[in-house]
Specification:
The chain is mainly α. Helix content is 65%, strand content 6%. A three-stranded antiparallel beta sheet has the order 1-3-2.
């Protein structure tokens, strides 16, 4: 069973429902997790619902389930669509927009992050080489930052490869 460190995660624990409904607890937890990452709480709740139930759901269905306005669903669904975690779909003969979870959406997000980390590593190293010799401390800081970016990228790349192997997936180039 999953447990949380109560001193670190007290705000998460307080979000759990009194009825101990695991679905609602998860949805609320995702809202708090997104909020901790400087993203809208409703975006996290929306993602949590779609991660559990898949979709597709209309704006109205999502607004009812999450007890928020359709406008809030619209803006947060666009945000999640833009970052590739959910997608807008159509149903034949229906003019409404529907949203569903993107299979492997996090994988795409992690691969984008990996590319950003690799770029950062190269950029900071290049800048350190280009700085004049008298800026030794600045060079040291840039190299340190590049090293952290490289190691984070290495770990992420290794983790993605291990997850792909565990899940029986092959990377599509």
């Amino acid at each position: 069973m999953f447990s949380l460190d109560k001193t670190i995660c007290s705000n998460y624990l307080s979000a759990m429902t009194e009825k101990n409904d695991p679905v609602q607890d998860f949805i609320e937890m995702m809202g708090l997790r997104f909020q901790d990452q400087q993203m809208p709480r409703i975006a996290g709740r929306l993602f949590g619902l779609l991660l559990l139930e898949g979709g597709p759901f209309s704006f109205g269905e999502l607004a009812d389930r999450l007890q928020v306005s359709r406008g809030s669903i619209s803006s947060n669904a666009r945000l999640l669509d833009d970052i590739g975690l959910i997608e807008r779909v159509a149903k034949p003969g229906d003019r409404q927009d529907y949203y569903r979870i993107v299979p492997d959406g996090f994988v795409s997000l992690f691969r984008k992050q990996l590319a950003k980390l690799r770029w950062s590593d190269e950029y900071y190293r290049d800048m350190a080489e280009r700085l004049p010799a008298h800026m030794g401390e600045a060079k040291r800081r840039l190299i340190a930052t590049a090293t952290y970016a490289r190691k984070a990228a290495d770990g992420l790349e290794s983790g993605l490869a291990e997850a792909d192997a565990l899940l029986g997936k092959q990377e599509i180039a």
